[in-house]
Amino acid sequence: MSPIFTLHKCILSIACALLSFCINAQTPATPITFGSIDLKDLQMKTYEKDTSAEAVVLCDYGEYSYYFGNDLPKVHYKRHIRIKILKKAGFGFASQKIPFYISSDGNKSEDVSKLKAITWNLENGSLVSYTMSEEDFFEEKGSGNTYYKKFTFPQVREGSVLEFSYELESGFWYDLRSWNFQTNIPTVWSELRAEIPAYFDFKITLLSFIPLNVKETKQDSRNFIRSNIRDPYFSYRFALADAPSLKIEPYVTTIENYRSKISFELASTFFPNQGKIDYSQTWETLNETLLTNDNFGKQIKKYDEAQKIAEILKSQTKDSLSLLTAAYQYIQNSMQWDGDNRVFTSGTNLNKVAEKKIGNSAEINLMLVRLLRECGFEANPVILSTRENGFPTDLVLLDRFDFTIAHVVLNGKDLLLDATSKLTKVGQLPLRCLNDKGRLIVRKNSRWIPIPAPQTSRKVVLMEMDILPDQQLKGNVDISYLGHDAIYFKSAVLAKGKDAYLVDYKKNKPNYDFSKIAITGVDSAETMPLLKLTATVNEAYSIAGDRIYLSPMIGMGEDTNPFKTPNRSYPVEFGIPQEETFSALYKLPADYAVEELPKSESVALPNNGGRFDFRLTVLEGGFKIDSKIALKKPIYSSEEYGALREFYNRIVFKHAEKIILKKK
């Protein structure tokens, strides 16, 4: 048996390294001892590696081990955590809760024991401790079978050190808990040790953008089940020093994609006198499981209306693409998505789902699969992980998926369809589904289906403005949207209704007096949405003596850089390539001329990653401004972050520059 270590393909900063292997190596002492506090930790005012941190985990230490009671395996967890409070904003860490699970099967229930907690303070130069007693801890029921041990540290103030430890026994021997090296505050030292008998073969998955400081394993033996026979076990040690906080930053789909952690998947067991039992699924067995499941494959056959609908559609269309589009639009328009991301149906027969005209993602898209089959297409379901759920992995684990869509072969090419959105067209998936790849579920030729990069999303602003006296501009503005920008705009308008949307739009532009404003093209997936307005803009420029100072973007440019931190350890995920074009023609007052224009500028991102072009041109009786931002990649790596941040700095700077007009 050998441990397997895998690393997600999107992690670019480290390579997948094998653990160092040593036989009977001496185990070092635990990194902290309960009740033994370093005075320097109490004297700490700020954490030098992140001076903005409101708190810091000084040490998070865990041990996993196995023992056998009544010949049944149990997992024994130990956890010891020490947290330094640096600012009032960190007082929330004084409240802690420990999850555990209670099952109707007593052999599987979990029990928290030996819970200890102390607040350490420095008072008048002396070390003072406040120890919690048993009555300070209480239990609270969560959802399902989840319970929590909860407590709040006493006497917490800026400078306090909070320390707690506990042990937990679990009958879920086949489901070792994952270990997170990172939290939303910095961690000075995080370490996990695990002793796993050779009866269990776990695949151990390391996900980390930061190289671990310790990756070790050793082999030894001791008595587990049989008192007269020593059986082998593997002992693992993982540690990470100075882990930065996992901060929510702009353009991150889900922060869990980038948390440094280790997870365990049971591959097989080999108990004495029992032989080997495999637990890892293959894609073939997963396919069979899904296709024979009452809430997946079998449900496809329970949408009886599909045959009648298909006959009608086939009689009305002449070519394959038209027929496919008609089938897609029928499900899209007749069904309402309930907002629930699901791989499986709710258990309700699809005939009844069709009657109610509302369903989850699996129900709607399995209906689409059936209708496409009745129309003569080779159609099958695809399961995927949405962007919010995290990156898909090559591990054969059903719980890594949370959405079902439809796959069809048209003219020998793969085509992916999701009918939960009423605003997507054939060949266009909503942003939530744009997450690398999905798994085609079919008995033969099951495979990963790459999710194609979407077309560039575009926003175009066209404007004609007259510069009037009294700091006013007057003219027309047309704003159009293409691609996913069109979907966002249509969704926002339809969610509120056109009238309510326009009311809010006007409220957000208090210096505009609108004489006309209208929205068109939002009621169909096939039309381009357009916002048209005629307005007078008040206080649109400033006057100093005989000069006018005008910002020609009039509030429609980039006014702040979304990328504020100087460094970033994970990618920037826009999700789709994007373009934003602003073109405005200004007519000058008769008694003014252009004295000074901002310089034109072109900025290119490395490796053809994008471009910003900014130009101002003097015309007869006026001037013209053209600004175009093109981001050509859906994802920019952390190595590209510095260039992207500077790219936006230049955009913000140029969009803020003013034109100077002088009275003749």
UniProtKB/TrEMBL annotation:
Leader peptide range in chain numbering: 1-25
Assigned keywords, A-Z: Signal
Protein name: DUF3857 domain-containing protein
Organism, as annotated: Arcicella aquatica
InterPro entries, alphabetized: DUF3857
Residue ranges of every copy of the DUF3857 domain listed in the record: 76-205
Pfam family, one: DUF3857
